Amino acid sequence: MPTVSMTVNGKEVSAEVETRTLLVQFLRDHIGLTGTHVGCDTSQCGACVVHVDGKALKSCTRLAVQCEGASVTTIEGLAANGALHPMQQAFHENHGLQCGFCTPGMIMSAVDMVERLGNKLDEKTIRQELEGNICRCTGYHNIVKSIAAGAEAMK
Ligand code: FES
Ligand code: FES
User: In which domain, by residue range, is 63 found?
Assistant: First the structure.
């Protein structure tokens, strides 16, 4: 089996994996970062979104071996020095979750959205950009509110 090495949340990690191992399986099963969730087997739900080399990616759509040498950020890597990332804080303050299953993917997509589109995000843009993230609980209203607030707070 090949050994794959990458940087995850600023730390060098490596593990022996089968070539068919998905990035999400590598993160969850090989290095124990279970904040990245699996909510479907059709690449639709977005619960597995992480950042790879600075871009949001559904980690169930990429093989771990394709990420050799990459820099990966997961939900566990957002908080710094014991303080939540502004987008995490905004979800907390605006009740942007119910069961929380979709939340890691929502937040990773939201941070990417701000990095690509800036801090002023209107409701229509946020809803369009969330096309790849499914929430089964909230009805999205407070998620949209959280992302707008988080975008402002990321200035
Ligand atoms: S688990 Fe990746 S999109 Fe659903
Ligand atoms: S909060 Fe439950 S799936 Fe989104």
Answer: 3-76
